[in-house]
Structure formats: C-alpha cells, structure tokens
Amino acid sequence: MKRVAGLVGLMICLFCLVAMAKGDTTPSQCQQERKLLEDSCKTRLLLGLSPSATCCQHVRVTHVECVCPKVTPKLANLINVQRTIKQIEGCGRTVPRNFKCGSVTTPP
C-alpha cells in the first residue's frame, strides 16, 4: 500500500509536466529522478497540501519522459487532475491543455 501511495504522489506531481526540456536520459537517471520526486512530494500532495520548496525544485527539473510512462489507467483513476494542475502551477510550471501523459489527458 505504501508503494502505491508513493507512486500516486509521484504521478500527482508530474503527470503533466510538458514544459521540461526533453533530453536523453538513461533508465537509471529516470529512476533516480522519480525517486527524488516521490521522496520530496508524496506526503504533502497526497494530502492536497501545497508542494514544499524541495518538491517544487524537483518538479521543475524532472523530465516528463521519465514520468509519463508510469501513468497507467488504474493510476489515472486515483489522480485529481484539477488539483494536480493547481499544485504544479504552484511550483511555477505551465500545464498545457490537452496534453497526453500516459493514460491521462489534461482538460481543455
């Protein structure tokens, strides 16, 4: 259950971060980025609280291609899209409309 909660926190934080520069990241780099993001964001985001400064720092640097493949239909059912968008924007990111990330598409 803790693993699922951690993954939900991770996805909540990043499912629609498209403004990231797309670069060549290795699987181990992606795993490390996801772990750092999960560790710094999951608790506050799962509770619906504003992200911490550390969480926002990770939100701004994590590559979207590391996160989107983890957004499955089952996980997408657990994500409150509107709240997630507000949280990401609270970190200074722009969330584009109609962006597809895994099995989630941001609202128009």
Automatic annotation (TrEMBL):
The protein's matches in Pfam families, at most eight in alphabetical order, are given as: LTP_2
Please list the residue ranges annotated as the Bifunctional inhibitor/plant lipid transfer protein/seed storage helical domain.
21-101
As one GO molecular function, the record gives:
lipid binding
Signal peptide per UniProt: 1-23
Keyword annotations = Lipid-binding, Signal, Transport
What is known about what this protein does? Plant non-specific lipid-transfer proteins transfer phospholipids as well as galactolipids across membranes. May play a role in wax or cutin deposition in the cell walls of expanding epidermal cells and certain secretory tissues.
Q: What is this protein called?
A: Bifunctional inhibitor/plant lipid transfer protein/seed storage helical domain-containing protein
Annotated organism of origin: Rubus argutus
